[in-house]
Amino acid sequence: AQTFCEIIGGKNAKPHSRPYMNFVLTAAHCKGDKITVKLGAHNISEQEQSQQEIPVHRQILHPQYDKETTNNDIMLLQLAETVKLNKWVKTIPLPRTNKRVKPGTKCSVAGWGRTSRQSKSAPATTLQEANLKVLKDDVCLKNPDVTYYDYDASTMMCVGDLKKGKASFMGDSGGPLVCGKRAQGIVSWGSQRSASPGVYTRVSTFIPWIEKMMRMLEP
């Protein structure tokens, strides 16, 4: 099965302490035999001058990633070459360890996934974005839809716009949920039903693991 997953940039370091960036963050379920990261894209069907294509040197899955429940759905990609940071490609700060986003917070999600729930709809070629709200964990925890049985509030976030039926969708996987100016979540999974909340990996839980892996793998 071909998965189309989106990649989000790394984290801000102390000024000039790290003059390059060679890690990106995505979802563990996006693991593939061979991954190439495309950065600085808007229209993925065109060869834009802003784009950088870099092969992945190493895929670092979270050791407790669970395929059955999609828990701990987070993966670091170490790139084979240094990313050139410019006006099209920048890093995004990550949250502080265990600093949770309050329910009701407005966030945005972006991706090249399908723009309609109909199974025949094609993925978008230009980047799409939607504004969503962080919901109370109970919206997913106590959801009558059995899809949410595996929701874990310590590692997952419940997000959506239930009134307008907006959500991330197939193909947006691995993309960032940006709240304020931080990447607080990673698109992970959800229900096929309309107006259902999306489930995102709670990035703040994984900061110690991310930092440990980056320290171990930095040349």
The strand count comes to: 10
Structure class: mainly beta
Spatial shape: globular
Low-confidence stretches: 8-20, 115-119
Q: Within the CATH hierarchy, at the fold level, what is the topology of the largest domain? A: Thrombin, subunit H
Number of structural domains: 2
Ends apart, CA distance between termini: 34 Å
Largest sheet: 6 strands, antiparallel, barrel
Account of the 3D structure:
This protein has a six-stranded antiparallel beta barrel with strand order 5-6-7-10-9-8. A four-stranded antiparallel sheet has the order 1-4-3-2, with helices on one face. It folds into two domains: 21-89 and 205-217, Beta Barrel (Thrombin, subunit H); 106-204, Thrombin, subunit H. The longest helix has 11 residues, at 207-217. The protein contains two helices and ten strands; from the N terminus they run ββββββαββββα. The chain is globular and about 45 Å long. It has helices spanning 137-141, 207-217, and strands at residues 21-26, 36-39, 52-61, 75-83, 106-111, 128-134, 156-160, 176-179, 182-190, 198-202. With 219 residues, the protein is mostly beta strands. Mean pLDDT is 81; it is low at 8-20 and 115-119.
